[in-house]
Amino acid sequence: MKRLLILASLIGAAPALADEGMWTYNNFPAAKVKEKYGFEPSQAWLDKVRLSSAKFGGGCSASFVSPNGLVMTNHHCARGCIQQLSTAQKDLIANGFYAQTQAQELQCPALEVSQLVEITDVTAQFNTATKGLTGKQYADTLRAEMAKLEKACATSDDIRCNVVTLYQGGRYNLYKYNRFQDVRLVFAPEHASAAFGGDPDNFEFPRYDLDVTFVRVYGKDGKPAKIDNYFKWSAQGAKEGELTFIPGHPGRTSRGLTVAQLEYLRDVSLPKTLFRQSEFRGMTTEFQNRGPEQKRISSNQLLMVENSLKANKGKLEQLSDKNFFAQKVAAEQELRQKVNADPKLKAKYGAAWDEIARAQNAYRDIREEFEAMEGSGISGQLFAFARTLVRAAEELPKPDSERLRGFNDASLTALKTQLASKAPLYPELEIANLTFSLTKMREELGPDHPFVKKVLGKESPRALATRLVKGSKLADPKVREALFTGGKKAIDASTDAMIRLAALVDPDARAIRKKYEEEVEAVIRKNSELVAQARFDLYGTDLYPDATGTLRLSYGSVKGYMEDGKKVEPFTTMGATFDRHTGEDPFALPKSWLAAQKDLTASTPMNFVTTNDIIGGNSGSPIISKDAEIVGLVFDGNRQSLGGEYGYDETANRAIGVHSEALVESLKKIYKADRILEELRPGSTPTVKSAPGR
Amino acid sequence: MKRLLILASLIGAAPALADEGMWTYNNFPAAKVKEKYGFEPSQAWLDKVRLSSAKFGGGCSASFVSPNGLVMTNHHCARGCIQQLSTAQKDLIANGFYAQTQAQELQCPALEVSQLVEITDVTAQFNTATKGLTGKQYADTLRAEMAKLEKACATSDDIRCNVVTLYQGGRYNLYKYNRFQDVRLVFAPEHASAAFGGDPDNFEFPRYDLDVTFVRVYGKDGKPAKIDNYFKWSAQGAKEGELTFIPGHPGRTSRGLTVAQLEYLRDVSLPKTLFRQSEFRGMTTEFQNRGPEQKRISSNQLLMVENSLKANKGKLEQLSDKNFFAQKVAAEQELRQKVNADPKLKAKYGAAWDEIARAQNAYRDIREEFEAMEGSGISGQLFAFARTLVRAAEELPKPDSERLRGFNDASLTALKTQLASKAPLYPELEIANLTFSLTKMREELGPDHPFVKKVLGKESPRALATRLVKGSKLADPKVREALFTGGKKAIDASTDAMIRLAALVDPDARAIRKKYEEEVEAVIRKNSELVAQARFDLYGTDLYPDATGTLRLSYGSVKGYMEDGKKVEPFTTMGATFDRHTGEDPFALPKSWLAAQKDLTASTPMNFVTTNDIIGGNSGSPIISKDAEIVGLVFDGNRQSLGGEYGYDETANRAIGVHSEALVESLKKIYKADRILEELRPGSTPTVKSAPGR
Which pTM value belongs to this model? Predict the structure, then answer.
């Protein structure tokens, strides 16, 4: 795989002619789209698309697809819910699910769908509040200002508000969301079809996945929510060359980072993460061999780590590319030279890059302790609950502006939802995971580190993990609620083993966090703001910000690409899906598919690729036409797109989607899901039944 | 950990004042040692040390320590034998072993100890034979010349001869070895003591390990071999500041590699290896949870992968150090500039670096296929046997000079020994490992690669691995012997599943190997020779060659070092060992130690460090005084020494050894091994018995 990546708009040396960018709804390059594709989205069009889009759970995207609250996303996005609704006896992951009637729709234990209803630019307020401040003062003020704005905005339980830091601090926007907290499962195919090809095919194209799930959002009255803005279904789906838009929540890109930050990622952070994830994958894969039930309860974990592992490998490959990195260095040099050439700009911004490098080096020195004490050193669901409860007891009595992020009044509803989760918790897997993280912690810090001695005492990681999990009742939501309500007194009196550990390590964790926030984070934030402002001053404001897990819009078109000298066609077909069926996981199609093969139109487009600039977090995004109709469903990017974390390359970066016609064909002929079809395309063709005797 | 590494002797810009170098016995810097330490080893001294040293198995070092064939090495070197002699009922790894009488000594199933008896410089012959040749012709001639020389030298079964490529081809030496093929276990402590601290303490100092094992070599008459040259035992052991020598077999260093080669290691090879090893470690760790017997049979594998993983992380850390790498770049630039400044040198050597870079890039393009087909793509003991048998049937009928390396007449005895191994083979572990490697192969090449399709067909990695292991009888040495003796006819007729797979993939494997040998290996060899010769021309011949797994000698002294601003003392004590005992593996001392604690002299030195320049492969090396007496036993290097692969830094690189007094004290008071003690120190103190009633 060769890359010829031109960092067009970020360095500003050339206009961004490529389909690059994950744009905000208040700075969309409508004129540029018109210039290239002849269609100019109006503000009304943008508003409708924004309101028809949804954030799904913590890290996915989705879309409203009917006036009655029907929501479309990926199977791999809804997988947590599907697994939580499964039992050893009734495995919805393996067998799929279809609610024949609305009454059969199953409530997800812990899932939220939200809709971005308002965007306010609050940059000026922030700049005024933090003017002239640095270090601790800057960080404290920033945090207090955020808490204040979010609190004022979140006027009810149904509303969530977040201050979003765009352009590394060049802009601050307040995003207001409608929250849907009653989410019910409507339809999911079998895992074998949703993730056909498994890890070997993940991030690859050609591809053959039916990675879809439908859920429905309900109101507080227990009835399907009424939705004013939703996407209609396209009659034919995406065609080659067609202009496509993808609204969604790309999680993170790092295109605006400085060279010092990229070096840290390349030389330290990504390799260390990959070593850990590789080992965790090996452990989880072998854990699956303990038995069928262990396989079931750990499958989600395996998918997640494999996905992240492959993505991180792609990122590291991109940063290890000498030519690519040289472009990054050159772009930074050019910007710094321009800054230094102007005495006013130099005085304002000149030191920012070195300050960031210094903070980045300071982080190198404390990284291992930070990770151990405040990061992944002690892992698992139970410890996460314990830490949240211990901190809530400490934080909530404080004035709102002095609390740790995540414990502000504006976040309380989300916090309570999280603590009330009815999602099952598997002690055997908890012990395995906790053993793993404690072993890693000892490895990273060494057995003689005071923190390691404090946590482990004379116990081995396995013995301690077993004792902690067996000695904790935090798997029970009622126990958590009581501890949350009981506050500091209840926490201090608790003999729960996990609560005691969380309390034991909290002073260390808070101390290293404070050091990190003041000496690393605050310095990087402050100076990244300056770098971003330097870019605005020198290159103008027609730039898109790095992805931040918030709603964006990308544009592009359906288009193949070249790989190793060969053309990769933009479409696969449902017929070709059967050619890859070997009968062995992950290349084993489910029975439903094999039974329906004869009825399917083999030439129906299955998956396809577009040039839209997306990244992890866009999973579940609809692919829409200029008429804002669904023509596909994003579920992946190709291998080449993984480097998109650091820059976009139109020659090979591709978004991968399920074609809308494959969705219709499979709902109709494989799953006989008439009820959904009718909702997606009112008045559409009735289900074709197999002829008798066939 | 900070490094201030000065690449003195390799760049030749400054004299090597540091204790740097793994020197050959025919180019030892005796004068330099005298200058720094006041002692000049004579040729007779060097000869005696060489003949008293031994190579142990495939990758370790050892020493003769009595006239009756007693050999000292590390527990972790003899671990393979100790495990092979164990059963589920009698676990010698966990419980240790001591043969009270000579008759009780247990024969290791597959182990060889060898002694370097002669070194001949054959560089001129090689240069004449390959003069003017390149590519395939060069590689063929080199191979043929090696086979010819080795064959002429290996006049009996007891002799092994290898042509050793020194200075990346700057010199060729013929090494002649005495082979001892009957090796019997005499004494081994419990694993818990030998590897006290386990993986967390591995490559760390301070340290507290009794990593020793004694074996005895026997002659063909079944009697202990008579040994003329052996090391006597020091009366007191190593003292701080004392001059120490370490003879041994350092496996590999890469200090003479070009920048292009180092970049490949840093950006591709080391990261990819680490990802794979991390995952394999995770898998093996969790495999241990299948049950106690599975834990026993996989412990060796776990130790090996953890050791290699930690070593490789240290190497990558060194290469990722910007300052260190900049020194490497500067050294190469200086050498190239000097070459280019002289028209004659330029004509001779000027193109070598770019040629190496080109070949290295060519390898990047085929690396994945090479690894899959000829490397670790199909792993496990059974497949290794199958490939050897399939290739032997193909190769042996050919003229000696045309055979693949490893199948020459000179290698036949070793080949037969390997095939005759009685070491047990564990099908459950074989299946797990083979599943792992097949999964990785599919991941690396992709499921649609013709080779993957050929190997897997419609089976999953696990299904195929299970079928192959269950369908193979190659675990039986008699079956292997019959197939070896039967030649091509027997192989063609065999229905053994593993033989059939090896035969199926051999054409692909040979093709990629040929491509690699001609387009990568031959080009790099040829041009590395030129770089080495350029160094000789410009910097003289007082240089040491990179380690090659052959006998070397390093010098240094007992000396502490600074780490993170604190002094690390050079000695630990037996008493302090008990302070680290937690009772939980890997910090649980065995019962024998706890029982003897009261009898031990707490101040006895336990482990210690020296400045000797060593690397993996030196494990089991004796540490000797200028009187060639044993003062310690190398078993590790500290973390800082891992970067020694690429350069030596006297400020912090340290060899770690068991002190000779700790060996004596534990043999005497913990293990009551009078028979060995008497052999090591004839007429020494009789064993102290515990007073009755204590």
Answer: 0.91
